[in-house]
Amino acid sequence: MSKNSTTRELSTPKSADIVSPRIRGGLSDRSVHRILRRRGYKPCKPMRKPGLTKENKLARLTWCLDHKDLTLKDWKNEIWSDETSVTWRGQQRRISVWRTAGEAYQYHCIRRRWKGFKQFMFWARFSYDEKGPSAELS
Questions:
Q1: The whole model's pTM is what?
Q2: Which one, 14, 32, 89, 104, has least CB within 10 Å?
Q3: Is 130 part of any domain?
Q4: 63 contact partners, CB below 8 Å, separation of at least 6
Q5: How far, in Å, CA of 113 to CA of 101, rounded?
Q6: Count of CB atoms situated within 10 Å of the CB of 22
Q7: Domain range spanning residue 105?
């Protein structure tokens, strides 16, 4: 189960289909579920993490080092922005991974996010003591 990202995302029926031929009498999906639970695994939503290139990582580190000595007064003068995307009439496939309590940030339990086509983008800004207006970008 913990071999790689693919095996962690297998449903119990698919796991049973893979394992059953190797076991005399087969194995039901319910049995697979019970065995995994006894071993401390439970189905969880995977942690989300942005996919970063080496250049992205270097730029982030440089920014942090450049701003490490700012005071609270300095930070109060900064304006931040954020965006989110919404897919109209789309339902993304629900994915869960089998993991134990201490494996939340383990490599095979994380789903990387890459920017892609979305139908609607919403953008907003905020600062220390104020939330700004939001805008819809198509």
A1: 0.46
A2: 89
A3: no
A4: none
A5: 23
A6: 8
A7: 5-77+96-115
